[in-house]
Design a protein that fits this description.
Distance between the termini: 7 Å
Structural class: alpha/beta
CATH topology: Rossmann fold
Helix content: 40-55%
Oligomer: single chain
Number of domains: 1
Order of helices and strands: EHEHHEHEHEH
Strand content: 15-25%
Strand order of the largest sheet: 2-1-3-4-5
Radius of gyration: 18 Å
Largest sheet: 5 strands, parallel
Number of helices: 6
Number of strands: 5
Length: 218
């Protein structure tokens, strides 16, 4: 049965990125009720940032208890990623980039010779469907001056598509902080509502596509 790994990173429980990921999960379950899901909430259960012991185990065998604990964490995270037929990641933009908890998860999970291939032709994750759901407080559209400040989507595209070889779809909701109660213009509120509606449609379609693709492979 297809397995989904779901990663949440927003510090806000009811955030737009979490809500969109939740919609994906609902459609996924409808399409394949027998499918399994591993949900890793990086706020409720943070993954530690790399320390000297964790870094050592990326390069060599553990030599003490702290390094063995770090190696065990690497093994757990790597097994989750390699064991997932599909990946779902939700993230907001924080200070023009990704949340530090998501960066910590990547730093602990991306390991040469395991999830990162020495030979790109033997990439263990290549071709698997990955969906990244992003939320922006502003617009940050590609091709705009504000878009040049967007270091969230380009980074995640590099990791998941260029390096890991996933079949990647990115769904973005923009202008999420545009609230008339806080002075947002009617035009910005319209942009927010339109963007969210489009993101909901896109995330539902992607969940159906990913679930059906994997069901056909099984």
């Amino acid at each position: 049965m297809p397995a989904l790994l779901h990663i949440d990173s927003s510090a806000t429980p009811g955030s737009v990125s979490r809500r969109l990921a939740g919609v994906y999960r609902e459609v996924w379950a409808q399409e394949d009720p027998a499918g399994t899901v591993v949900h890793r909430d990086l706020v409720r259960t943070p993954v530690p940032h790399l320390d000297p012991d964790g870094l050592h185990t990326l390069l060599g065998a553990p030599g003490n208890d702290a390094q063995r604990a770090a190696a065990a964490l690497h093994d757990e995270l790597v097994d989750e990623l390699l064991g997932a037929d599909a990946l779902l990641v939700s993230a907001p933009m924080y200070n023009w980039s990704l949340p530090s908890n998501l960066k910590a998860w990547l730093d602990q999970t991306l390991i040469m010779g395991r999830t990162l291939p020495y030979d790109p032709a033997a990439n263990p994750l290549a071709g698997r469907p990955a969906t990244v759901v992003l939320a922006y407080g502003g617009g940050y559209e590609t091709g705009t001056e504000e878009g040049l400040m967007n270091h969230l989507e380009p980074y995640l595209r590099t990791v998941f598509s260029t390096v890991l070889g996933y079949d990647l779809t990115v769904v973005s909701a923009r202008m999420t902080l545009s609230d008339p109660e806080y002075g947002a213009s009617p035009e910005d509120v319209r942009r927010r509502d339109d963007s969210l509606a489009q993101a909901l449609t896109a995330v539902r379609a992607r969940a159906r596509e990913a679930a059906r693709l994997l069901s056909a492979r099984v």
